[in-house]
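EI: anyone free to look at a 273-residue chain?
SC: sure, send it
EI:
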Amino acid sequence: MKIEGKIAVVTGAASGIGQATCLKLAEEGIRAIAAVDRSEGVVDFCRIINDGFARQILYPYAGDVVDGEFRERVFADVESKFDAVQICVPAAGITRDRLAVKVSIGDGKIKLDLYSEDEFRRVMNINLVAPIYWALRTVGSMAMSRKRAGLGPWDPDERVQGGIVLIGSVSSAGNRGQISYATAKAGLEGAQATLSIEAIYHGVRCAIIHPGFTDTPMVRAMGEDMINERIIPNTQLKRLIRPEEIAEAIVFMLKNSSVSGALWADAGWHPTM
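SC: here you go
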């Protein structure tokens, strides 16, 4: 699939993998990107990239990716400018790491401390529910565009029209201290497998990438001790993955229409207990 001239939506665009993906897509000649992020810093990021390319490629949208009304405003605005959104990389994510079950003794009593249900739901909403619905809305954008053009089911002679890459994680296979994050990322695998079957009816492919520990603000927030003691020693490259390396893999998945499943970009991650 050619990226040149297409329209994309990228969430988590102000930093990390989302930011690197925006830059890589711009280098590939994409026509426009709706750069979505909770942080107002997305505005400055878009300005810098647009100035560097001497044309407006990135359009900033600041808001909560979980908010369905905000999501609809983004798509409605993009569709009013460019018709259909063809590419989606929902990269926004958070972690809220801790052991699932703790037991402590205080005041002579044994106390049970379970992982917070509120934290669990927040992680699931941002890392699982939100990316699924940004992806669904992208498929819907393509479906409506085809309907307006009087087109029926996608035909292979048309070539692939759009692509979605969900952001999984090596943690989807299970990781100590990540009961909420690992569950959300594992859930994306089922969503991708289902959406890939349904979305091709409208000419859209759906795949998932599972990055290893990448040098992003989210990973850095885990602390240098955690990174140096628990992550780097268990990674064959003996370093964090660079965001641009994941972005290059995402663009490869979008461009190569034979890639329809999962790609593990884990840098040789082999965790020990």
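EI: The chain has one domain: 7-265.
SC: 👍
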